Each structure stands twice: as C-alpha cells, then as structure tokens.
Amino acid sequence: MESFLRYWRTSYCDADYARCARFRMSAEGKPVPVNLLPSGNLMKVVPK
Amino acid sequence: MNLEVLNGQWPFWLGALALAVTAVGYAASLGRLMGVSGMYERLLNARVELSTEREERAFQDRTILAEALRRETLAEMQRQGVKDIPAEMAAPAAAPAGPEVAPRVPVWSQLVFLVAMFAGGALAKALSGGLAVQAQPDPMHVHLFGRAAPLALLFGGVLVGFGTRMAGGCTSGHGLSGCGRLQPGSLLATACFFGSGVALSMVLGRVLA
C-alpha cells in the first residue's frame, strides 16, 4: 500500500497540492470524507 | 456529605478541578482534544458527519482498504497516461500493518457532551439555590442598549460564534486543550480572548460609572 500512497503523494502533495481535492475541501472548512481521493473521485469499497 | 462548599459562589479551585478532569478525561478516553465550539459545529453538520462515519466504518478492514487503493491508483495512473505500471504496484495488495489512528469521535457523543454541559451548569446553580429562568435582559444590557438589548445579545452571540470558528477554537479548545499543550496559536488566541474581555470590562465600567 505504501507504493500507492507514495504515488498520490508525489502527484499531488509534492507536485501541486492546490489541485488536491482533499486540500481544497479542508481549506473550505468542510469535513473531508475518508474515501475522497486527491483526484476528486470517491474510493469505492468492495466488501469481501 | 457536606455540601456547604456548593452554596453561593463556588471556590475557584473547584471549577478549575472540574475543568481539568473534563479536559484530561476527554483526551485520555477518546484520544482527541476537547473543543466545545467544534462539537457545536459538528452537530450543525450532523448529516454530513453521520455519512462520513458510515464511510469510515467501511474502511476499518485494512485488506479491503489496500485493495481499493490499489484499484484506484492504477486507474489514476492510466488516466495520467502511464503505460508501464511498476511491477510492485500491479501485484496484489498486501494488508499493511500501519499505525492505528484514533477513530473519529461519534457525533452523537458530542450532543451528549453539550447537553451534559448545560445540565451540569443548571445543576450547579440549583445546588447553589439560585436556579431561575430569566426572560428579561440583565439591567446592565438594558442600560447600554435600551429596548434593543435582546437583539444586541443575539448579535453578540453571532459574533462570538463567527470569531471562534475564524480562530479555530474557543476558550475550551484553545484555552484548556491548546494552552495545556503549550501550542503557540492557542496561547495567542487565549491571550486575545481574555485581553479583549478585560479591556471591554474596563470600558463598560467607565461607561456605566
């Protein structure tokens, strides 16, 4: 999972955090959903 | 049991002890810092908060979380035009043993806290023998604002709410939790809260005199 997180971190946090959907939502003072990806997509869970 | 200490004005140390036990107990039991204005804000956003709590529960299983993250990451990489996906990313996700994060405090518990805070104040006043519902504004407010005193009080309440959200906390969040941890922002905010309170009291004292 570390390699996936590293990819998102490199693409958004390090490169251009202003386009991170989580950052934008937090900056607006709204609660950030746990499954919101920096791209703005909501991560879907497939139960076992 | 001798309740004489609860009659009339309570001693300062009793209030300080109650606040300390509440703030430390909250942090020790829930792993989060106590902040009353933040609780109030969460209750106002209860619909969104409850939805977020449901989503977080679905992510408690770290194997499911890892698999979902792998799927979304690969899709994002393909959208970005990455053709050769690294082998370690394409492999099935392993369940990681990461650090545990303190879970979000349930929004219903915030309602319980606020109701208990109100009930505790009423109980303290009742034990002191002076519990009464007062429909009229305080004579000092009437002296200052005349018939507009209720509106002035309402406007003051709105300003307090606006200020606490702008400062990211109130006297409990900054004053108790933040100052207790020696956070510079909280020390500054609390100095502003109490400094402006003292200054306004001095001005009002001169106006009323």
Write a short abstract of this structure.
Chain A contains two helices and no strands. With 48 residues, chain A is mainly alpha-helical.
Along the chain, the helix and strand elements of chain B come as HHHHHHHHHH
Fraction of residues in helix of chain A: 40-55%
Which consecutive residue ranges of chain B, at least 5 long each, have pLDDT under 50?
none
Outline of chain A: flat
Mean pLDDT of chain A: 84
Rg from Cα of chain B: 25 Å
Distance between the termini of chain A: 18 Å
Q: Helical segment tally of chain B?
A: 10
Helix-strand pattern of chain A, N to C?
HH
The assigned structural class of chain A equals mainly alpha
Beta content of chain A comes to under 5%
Coarse shape of chain B: elongated
Described by strand count, sense and barrel closure, the largest sheet of chain B is: none
The largest β sheet of chain A comes out as:
none
Distance between the termini of chain B: 43 Å
Overview of this structure, please?
The complex is a heterodimer of chains A (48) and B (209). With 48 residues, chain A is mostly helical. Chain A is built from two helices and no strands. The mean pLDDT of chain A is 84. With 209 residues, chain B is an all-alpha fold. Chain B has ten helices and no strands. The model of chain B has no long low-confidence stretch (mean pLDDT 84). At the A-B interface, helix 1 of A face helix 3 and helix 4 of B.
